[in-house]
């Protein structure tokens, strides 16, 4: 890759909201390690190779650490890591069978199911906890005051999805506001310069605009709605069922990387900084806005139907919401079958 990575690539326009599918193939990835899926090649004798795709995002910090430290390969998984420039490219490669797994945001993954893709969610990566937010002038006292106002954000993005959830909570509809379609950095700049009264964006643009503009504040962020934006790891059903040991290796590699982040924080942050082309200070700041989901919480989210954070309930309500907002035509049926909790249940570190 050349130049500075923009972390908002993972959050740019969701194909589920735009109805556009790209034509990407693996050769168009911004970064790739390994090649096509084989057994016993790049990862060593007896290893299972799996092409895996993401767009760059701070929430995938444990993945970067596990790759760098060899936590997958020592367990017999040759994870062939591909970085794409947009979610649409990841989805297209997965639909074409060029990827065996991916990491993505929950609305994207629900839309994949609606489009007939066969996969199993094996792990929750992270949830936004203050990394995404809404800036508003001091004259706007509440979310209810958004009615009739113009809001700067990127249409079809995760920011757009977040706003829809916040409006619904306040009893407003999308028709109650006007959207000015602009990129996350430009939305923050417009708010900072006084050209818009409301903007939806995310770290680091959120904090910098808030600090620079004295007439206003962060009126709402994902710390108040931590389940709104969740990232997930999945593998194709065929791969997870044919190679359960390799799928378990992925989960255990991520879990070991989370432990490494706790016990060797400076080295871990340096690894992530190299991947995202950020300074250690920037990585630490970005990590403040996400909750990386540990093994214990994963077990509750994937396996405990009685928990108020059970992922099946979340995906069910998310599907219904996306239908209501006319973002997808129909919600996937029986979303619980998309979950594969056995891997986080069996995992040890």
What would you say this structure looks like, in words?
The structure is a single chain. The protein is of the alpha/beta class. It is globular, with a radius of gyration of 20 Å. The chain has helices spanning 15-18, 61-69, 87-95, 106-114, 158-169, 184-192, 205-212, 237-242, 244-263, 265-276, 280-287, 295-303, 311-324, 342-346, and strands at residues 31-32, 48-54, 77-83, 101-105, 119-128, 132-136, 150-153, 178-181, 198-202, 217-221, 230-236, 290-292. It folds into two domains: 7-127 and 228-346, D-Maltodextrin-Binding Protein, domain 2 (3-Layer(aba) Sandwich), CATH 3.40.190; 132-221, Periplasmic binding protein-like II (D-Maltodextrin-Binding Protein, domain 2, 3-Layer(aba) Sandwich), CATH 3.40.190. The strands form two sheets. It has a seven-stranded mixed beta sheet, with helices on both faces. A five-stranded mixed beta sheet has the order 8-7-9-6-10, with helices on both faces.
In total, the number of domains comes to 2
For the sheet with most strands, the description reads: 7 strands, mixed
Continuous helix count: 14
CATH superfamily of the largest domain: Periplasmic binding protein-like II
Overall, the morphology is globular
Written as H for each helix and E for each strand, in order along the chain, the element string is HEEHEHEHEEEHEHEHEEHHHHEHHH
The whole-number mean of residue pLDDT values reads 86
Radius of gyration: 20 Å
Strand content: 15-25%
Please state the second-level CATH architecture of the largest domain. Answer: 3-Layer(aba) Sandwich
Secondary-structure content class: alpha/beta
The parts where pLDDT drops under 50 for at least 5 residues are: 1-10, 12-25, 27-43
How many beta-strand elements? Answer: 12
State the strand order across the main sheet: 1-3-2-4-11-5-12
